[in-house]
């Protein structure tokens, strides 16, 4: 056979022009780990190319690979014994560099001596293909520069990425093999960007020639794709968790290194019973070079008492900060385990850089193993830790369940903690990314750790302020769908039983450790801003990061979520990271006072947990069956919170920005007038009106705070502002001074409408710039002086030994403050509150005066629902809260049960003696003396309330129900079209009505208002009388005044007011009969009933006309009649004020408080002559104060006390305290002035004696104990 010619030999060499293959050097797996961690965040080729150094690329066509490998082998064998280039050779990288291109820079690692060893070896390989060393296979690469690509960056971030790459150095290994890569494209995609370079073969290098090609089981940088290794086809799109290395600090080596695995199961230590977890975003505020001035402050913060925890979850951790932190001896001793070592640590225990600029790092006292769960977006993911020494015993399970047990052992369920830092921003794409990331995390935890207890901690970046969300909607920065998505994130978490530890602490602990440096006022805080961890209004670093955009409101970004409510009990929650003054060693400007310094733009949070496998059983044993609650899920048609807000806005229940600002100005003006401060001196955002102001002219302390709907944040445009003043002067003096100052401010739009003697005490009704205000005063000197501590002082403190009337006023604020601190989701609560109030108004059952629901009733009932719902179902939406409210109270046993807050007093049920005849419903207030807020309820009003609750509950189960239908009903036709839907039904539901006509032609607004107010209070007695004398008749009053709709404006006298109240009459179900003689008996009963009704109405009319205080026949008239439905005529609601404002000088009011403070007169006033001193300087507390103290003080046992009183016929008698009647209508009622002593049963000791002036309860009188 003829030998081949030179030409034929050359043509048999494959061309080096195919981008489908590459010949390269790949680092060993242990070196690739750190490189790939960095490439994953910065290299666009990560996942498609392994870490590599190209030798020849493009290489040969795929079909020419066997021939190419043969040529390489032949060439290397030909050099055996001639030089060492064909055998293993060392490669050493000692620098990082970059080269620029049109879109930025590519950062790479460069070998020592410019890679001369690689260049020589490459020249040898090229000779096998007939090419010289200067061969350039691509026009893009004229000269061969061996390099290992780390990633791409913008031009201005190239230095940053090079600094991270530098932390990988030095790198050195022996190149013992060459790797052939081939491109594999997915069958359904043809572009190269979707392909992946796979290892086709490996050429081993040794002194004796090339090894055989290995085609399988390679480990050369192969990146597992999301489609690989999935047994579950439904999980094909789920991210794959990547096992990572846990670091431990070894004192003997003074360095961080991979933690050694446990040698045996016996190495497990006993699981702790308590656990603390802290989370803190430490803020990266510069890319490169890193700003290190905050590092000492951050380290002090993390080691402070308020932040120190067993597990520390950090976000936005940079390489330089982690290196700084892990060098601290206190850090190393407190947290010897970490997800990452100290970046840049040299020597044999070299540690590479963190994967990105802002990283999640977890430090722990306890051993763990962990994995990284990547999200769709680069740089984003979750660190999932499994704590091998913390957990609970596995519950007994079926064999199927045990077969799918976790790898931690069949008898132990370790705690799983996930650290997160979700995508920031309030845009459609950012919110969608958050939802995707949370969903990916929840799905992974549910699949991998379904039975384990979970903790999820970190910066969720979920916008919580409703002001911010509404502003984004108005500016079209986000869509309505995105706004709904934000709300749905809470649902996503609650569906997997993840509870927010902040919510739990609010609901069950009532107090948290640590607070904002300057708490925001109730007027300045909006829904979703409570517990904010990111507050641009208080933190200058936060303000700098958001600028002047929409997101300048406080947000609760940071959270610690817990799953395992029957295992993990939240026992504490706190915040940390508040500013500190200049610290020794920190740089300060010379000559200036130290300024507050902030460690981060976030506050940190810490949760304290108790690990108790028997927690669920203990809760069930300590909880009364009455407070169990079954959640009612809202129908799909009602799940959209945006539609709920739209419905409320249509009914003017959501205040506008102008209305919010207007009320702030009005309240500020009132405070400035009463405090005699300049009107323009508006308080700062931290002035709640609660800080006691001491006048420069006297030592009068005066606190002014909002209470009621405005204080609770559930008000609307028609609501009054309820104001409570607490001060060091008497009631009479306060109202005298207040009256003077308010009248002087008439030019500012201030007027006093009237003085009201309400059940809670004297009250001034004011109007300031069109806004109504109710002003009450509580005389309590020590309370005013210690106001800043008022919510932290225990109820048993002697500070609250006040008269009952004072305590009732003060409790309006204390109860409100408690609810604001304990309702889990205050934003959802407020939304639900507004809807329920609107529903009650539309259905004619919103009026506490008539025995229906009032604001306080809705507040107490709804807060109870929110807390019980959170305990049983976790965080829920406002729609779920509303549906549960209707279902629960529609089926509530009002006759037997008491509605109370089960979390306020955990030790026992509240002690309350219910009157079966006078209290058909009991809704207890909170702080002692706990009173029945539903004291005005009657059997007819409770029956009406239950009927409406059941009706609403039935509507909620209808297909296609909407919020508007629930409030307004269906479209109605008829003569009455301007009435609420409930009023329309009311006018059509009864065959006859009691009509109470009232007419007033006086000019005084105060007298007109007093007349209708007094008449409405008498109507309740009429209902009670009707129910007692006509039990077969159900009477329902509509709680509003009607007027004749047909009367034209020209017919109306502007000084003549005419209206009416209507009471619908209907037979009760028990009134019917089926006996043969039922018809005859019915006729007789009807006549008797009509006669009794006439008598009742005549007696009611006589009582009204006989009251000279309120009824004046010269200016008013009241007439009561029984009419049929057809005689109602056209009616509309009368919303007028009856009368005109006329200034009337009245005597300053004075409450009958038993223990008012001494008068504090203004300077220059001459005090009245002192009366003759009494035998004792201390006034004896009255008997009713002693009675209430014994009844409501938990430290006193009412059953151990007797009351001694004077009987008019039998002399001194005794009665147990628990049997004492306080209602005047009770047959056993005894006036309190007949009480002469109280004594204990157990030892016979008198604890209070009127004659001997002894008081061992309060210590008053001459013989105090």
From TrEMBL:
Residue ranges of domain Poly(A) polymerase nucleotidyltransferase in the record: 634-778
Alphabetized Pfam families for the sequence: 2_5_RNA_ligase2, Exo_endo_phos, MJ1316, PAP_central, PAP_NTPase
One annotated GO biological process: mRNA processing
Main localization of the protein described in the UniProt heading: nucleus
Biased composition (Pro residues): 1160-1172
Domain of life, per lineage: Eukaryota
Family membership noted in the UniProt record: Belongs to the poly(A) polymerase family.
Chain ranges passing through the membrane: none
UniProt xrefs under InterPro entries: Cyclic_Pdiesterase, Endo/exonu/phosph_ase_sf, Endo/exonuclease/phosphatase, MJ1316, NT_sf, NuclTrfase_I-like_C, PolA_pol_cen_dom, PolA_pol_NTPase
Cell compartments where the protein resides: Nucleus
Keyword check for Membrane: no
Residue span of region Disordered: 1143-1180
MJ1316 RNA cyclic group end recognition domain location: 1180-1250
Annotated Endonuclease/exonuclease/phosphatase domain residues: 279-602
Cofactors that this protein relies on: Mn(2+); Mg(2+)
GO molecular-function term, one example from the UniProt record: ATP binding
Protein name per its UniProtKB record: polynucleotide adenylyltransferase
Biased amino acid composition, Acidic residues: 1147-1159
This enzyme's EC code(s): 2.7.7.19
Record's keyword terms, sorted: ATP-binding, Magnesium, Metal-binding, mRNA processing, Nucleotide-binding, Nucleus, Transferase
Stretches assigned to the Poly(A) polymerase central domain: 829-966
One Gene Ontology cellular component: nucleus
């Amino acid at each position: 056979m003829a030998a081949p010619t030179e030409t034929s030999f050359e043509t048999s060499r494959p061309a080096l022009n195919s981008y489908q293959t590459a010949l390269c050097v790949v680092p060993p797996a242990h070196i690739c780990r750190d490189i790939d961690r960095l490439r994953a965040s910065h290299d666009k080729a990560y996942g498609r190319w392994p870490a590599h150094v190209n030798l020849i690329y493009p290489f040969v066509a795929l079909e020419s690979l066997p021939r190419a490998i043969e040529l390489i082998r032949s060439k290397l064998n030909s050099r055996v014994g001639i030089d060492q280039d064909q055998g293993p050779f060392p490669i050493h990288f000692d620098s990082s560099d970059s080269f620029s291109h049109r879109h930025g820079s590519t950062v790479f690692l460069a070998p020592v001596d410019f890679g001369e060893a690689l260049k020589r070896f490459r020249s040898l390989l090229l000779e096998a293909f007939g090419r010289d060393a200067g061969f350039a296979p691509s026009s893009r690469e004229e000269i061969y520069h061996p390099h290992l690509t780390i990633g791409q960056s913008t031009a201005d971030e190239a230095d940053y990425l090079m600094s991270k790459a530098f932390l990988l150095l030095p790198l050195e290994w022996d190149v013992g093999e060459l790797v052939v890569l081939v491109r594999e494209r997915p069958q359904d995609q043809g572009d190269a960007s979707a392909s992946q370079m796979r290892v086709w073969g490996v050429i081993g290098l040794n002194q004796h020639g090339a090894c055989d090609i290995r085609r399988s089981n390679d480990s050369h940088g192969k990146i597992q794709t999301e489609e690989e290794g999935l047994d579950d086809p439904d999980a094909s799109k789920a991210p794959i968790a990547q096992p990572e290395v846990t670091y431990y600090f070894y004192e003997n080596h003074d360095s961080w290194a991979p933690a050694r695995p446990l040698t045996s199961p016996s190495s497990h230590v006993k699981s702790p019973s308590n656990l603390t977890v802290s989370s803190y975003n430490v803020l990266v505020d510069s890319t490169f070079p890193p700003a290190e001035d905050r590092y000492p402050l951050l380290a002090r913060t993390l080691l402070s008492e308020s932040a120190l925890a067993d597990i520390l979850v950090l976000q936005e951790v940079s390489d330089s900060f982690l290196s700084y932190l892990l060098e601290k001896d206190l850090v190393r001793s407190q947290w010897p385990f970490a997800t990452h070592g100290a970046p840049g640590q040299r020597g044999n225990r070299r540690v590479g850089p963190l994967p990105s600029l802002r990283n999640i790092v977890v430090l722990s006292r306890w051993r763990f193993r962990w994995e990284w769960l990547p999200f769709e977006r680069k740089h984003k993911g979750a660190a999932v830790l499994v704590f091998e020494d913390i957990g609970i015993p596995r519950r007994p399970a079926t064999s199927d369940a045990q077969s799918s047990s976790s790898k931690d052992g069949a008898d132990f369920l370790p705690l799983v903690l996930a650290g997160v830092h979700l995508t920031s921003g309030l845009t459609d794409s950012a919110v969608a990314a958050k939802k995707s990331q949370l969903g990916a995390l929840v799905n992974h935890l549910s699949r991998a750790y379904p039975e384990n207890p979970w903790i999820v901690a970190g910066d969720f970046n979920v916008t919580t302020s409703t002001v911010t969300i509404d502003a984004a909607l108005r500016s079209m920065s986000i869509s309505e769908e995105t706004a709904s998505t934000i709300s749905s994130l809470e649902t996503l978490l609650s569906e997997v039983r993840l509870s927010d530890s902040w919510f739990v602490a609010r609901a069950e602990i009532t107090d948290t450790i640590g607070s904002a440096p300057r708490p925001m006022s109730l007027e300045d805080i909006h829904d979703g801003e409570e517990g904010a961890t990111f507050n641009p209004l208080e933190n200058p670093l936060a303000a700098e990061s958001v600028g002047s955009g929409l997101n300048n409101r406080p947000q609760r970004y940071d959270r610690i979520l817990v799953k395992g409510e029957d295992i993990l009990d939240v026992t504490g929650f706190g915040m940390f990271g508040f500013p500190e003054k200049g610290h020794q060693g920190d740089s300060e400007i010379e000559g200036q006072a130290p300024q507050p310094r902030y460690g981060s733009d976030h506050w940190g949070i810490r949760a304290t947990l108790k690990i108790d496998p028997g927690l669920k059983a203990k809760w069930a044993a300590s909880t009364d069956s009455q407070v169990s609650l079954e959640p009612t899920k809202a129908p799909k048609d009602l799940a959209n919170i945006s539609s709920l807000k739209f419905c409320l806005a249509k009914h003017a229940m959501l205040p506008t920005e102008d209305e919010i600002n207007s009320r702030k100005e009005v309240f500020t003006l009132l405070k400035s007038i009463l405090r005699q401060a300049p009107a323009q001196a508006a308080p700062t955002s931290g002035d709640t009106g609660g800080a006691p102001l001491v006048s420069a002219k006297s030592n009068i302390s005066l606190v002014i705070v909002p209470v009621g709907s405005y204080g609770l944040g559930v008000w609307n445009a028609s609501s009054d502002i309820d104001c409570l003043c607490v001060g060091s002067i008497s009631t009479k003096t306060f109202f005298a001074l207040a009256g003077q100052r308010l009248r002087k401010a008439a030019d500012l739009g201030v007027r006093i409408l009237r003085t009201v003697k309400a059940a809670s005490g004297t009250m001034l009704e004011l109007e300031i710039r069109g806004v109504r205000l109710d002003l009450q005063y509580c005389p309590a000197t020590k309370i005013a002086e210690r106001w800043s501590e008022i919510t932290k002082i225990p109820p048993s403190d002697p500070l609250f030994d006040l008269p009952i009337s004072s305590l009732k006023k003060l409790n309006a604020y204390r109860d409100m403050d408690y609810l604001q601190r304990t309702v889990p989701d205050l934003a959802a609560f407020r939304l639900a509150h507004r809807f329920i109030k609107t529903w009650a108004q539309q259905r004619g059952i919103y009026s506490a005066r008539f025995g229906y629901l009032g604001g306080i009733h809705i507040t107490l009932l709804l807060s109870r629902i929110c807390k019980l719902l959170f305990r049983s179902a976790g965080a829920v939406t406002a729609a779920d809260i509303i549906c549960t409210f209707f279902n629960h109270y529609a089926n509530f046993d009002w006759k037997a049960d008491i509605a109370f807050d089960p979390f306020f007093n955990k030790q026992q049920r509240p002690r309350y003696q219910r009157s079966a005849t006078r209290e058909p419903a009991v809704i207890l207030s909170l702080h002692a003396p706990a009173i029945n807020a539903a004291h005005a309820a009657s059997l007819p009003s409770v029956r009406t309330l239950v009927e409406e609750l059941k009706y609403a509950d039935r509507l909620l189960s209808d297909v296609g129900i909407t919020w508007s239908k629930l409030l307004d009903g269906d479209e109605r036709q008829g003569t009455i079209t301007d009435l609420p839907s409930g009023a329309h039904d009311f006018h059509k539901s009864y065959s006859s009505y009691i009509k109470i006509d009232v007419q007033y032609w006086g000019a005084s607004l105060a007298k007109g208002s007093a007349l209708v107010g007094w008449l409405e209070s008498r109507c309740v007695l009429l209902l009670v009388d009707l129910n007692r004398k006509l039990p077969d008749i159900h009477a329902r009053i509509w709680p509003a005044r009607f007027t004749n709709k047909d009367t034209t404006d020209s017919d109306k006298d502007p000084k003549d007011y005419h209206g009416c109240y209507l009471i619908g009459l209907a037979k009760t179900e028990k009134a019917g009969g089926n006996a043969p003689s039922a018809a005859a008996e019915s006729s007789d009963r009807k006549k008797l009933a009509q006669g009794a009704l006439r008598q009742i109405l005549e007696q009611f009319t006589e009582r009204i006309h006989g009251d000279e205080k309120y009824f004046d026949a010269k200016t008013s008239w009241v007439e009561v009649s029984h009419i049929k439905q057809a005689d109602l005529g056209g009616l509309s609601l009368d919303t007028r004020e009856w009368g005109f404002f006329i200034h009337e000088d009245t005597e300053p009011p004075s409450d009958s408080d038993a223990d008012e403070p001494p008068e504090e007169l203004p300077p220059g006033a001459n005090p009245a002559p002192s009366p003759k001193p009494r035998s004792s300087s201390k006034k004896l507390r009255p008997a009713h104060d002693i009675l209430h103290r014994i009844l409501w003080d938990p430290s006193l046992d009412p059953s151990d006390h007797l009351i001694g009183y004077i009987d008019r016929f039998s002399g001194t008698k005794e009665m147990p305290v628990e049997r004492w009647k306080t209602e005047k209508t009770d047959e056993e009622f005894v006036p309190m002035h007949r009480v002469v002593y109280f004594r204990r049963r157990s030892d016979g000791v008198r604890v209070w004696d009127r004659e001997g002036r002894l008081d061992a309860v309060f210590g008053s009188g001459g013989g105090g104990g």
